Amino acid sequence: MPQSLARLTVHLVFSTKCREPLITDVVRPDLHAYMAGILRNVACPAVVINSVEDHVHILFRLARTVALSTVVEQVKKSSSKWIKTHGEQFSSFAWQSGYGAFAVSESDVQVVQRYIELQREHHQGSTFEDEYLGFMYDYQVDFDQRFMWEWCPIASDGSRCVAWVVCRIAPKAHNNLSPGQRPGKQGVPGPSANPQ
Questions:
Q1: Smallest Cα–Cα separation from 139: which of 147, 131, 149, 128?
Q2: 98, 127, 134, 148: least CB-packed within 10 angstroms?
Q3: 6-30 pLDDT tens trace
Q4: Residues 108 and 178 placed together within one structural domain of the fold
Q5: Three-state DSSP class for 84?
């Protein structure tokens, strides 16, 4: 075959460091536009970008000539620098070190796009942690909860605790699940989310 062709759609999810609620309505629309510009510059056009206070969802087309990790690094690094210029309240802004990236079949693009567009409504009854764990189970990603969440200072005395979901949900609660089975709320679009 003389030509290399690809059409890969990725659902990218990452949070603010320690899930701090820093993505406010004041900066949100401009942040989304800035991220879309970064993606355009690396030939990975955004389908949709949306966020709530502590995390962002990006659905984009991955160019065949660029590595996913390079795209994620560009989006996170550039947007973090950009948001820090928008006031004192953002001076220490940072994204978490990791991310989740999930392949989306062409038949599920509209379902995932709609899910991302409705983030605010979705998170009235679900936390980021619950949502993210749902993706891990739906996409059958092997993971170890001991390393899922960053350690963040949360007490005035400087003591540290992992994200509250790990403290709240004992690891044994997930050890007895069979493949494809997951705890928490249903409705997170996964590989088989396309309604018939």
A1: 131
A2: 98
A3: 889 999 999 999 888 999 999 999 9
A4: no
A5: helix
Contacts of 43-46 with CB under 8 Å at 24 or more apart are 44/71
Query: Is the sign of the CA dihedral 3, 40, 51, 173 positive or negative?
Result: positive
How crowded is the C-beta side of 165, counted as CA atoms within 13 Å? 20
Query: Residue 161's domain spans which residues?
Result: 143-184
CA torsion 113-114-117-123 (nearest 10°) is -120
Do 115 and 149 belong to one domain?
no
78 DSSP assignment: H
Which of 74, 98, 125 corresponds to the end of one domain?
125
Residue with tokens 């996964």: 190
What 3-state class would DSSP assign to 119? helix
Please choose, from the candidates 101, 47, 97, the residue with its C-alpha nearest in 3D space to the C-alpha of residue 77: 97
Q: Is the dihedral of CA 57, 148, 187, 194 positive or negative?
A: positive
- What is the model's pTM? 0.76
194 vs 16, higher pLDDT: 16
Distance CA 141, CA 147 (A): 14
Contact 131, 116 (CB under 8 A): no
**Do 115 and 87 have their domain in common?**
yes
Residues 169-185 have pLDDT tens digits of 333 334 444 444 444 43
Q: Roughly what angle, to the nearest 10 degrees, separates helices 28-41 and 68-84?
A: 140
Q: How far apart are CA 159 and CA 99, in angstroms?
A: 25
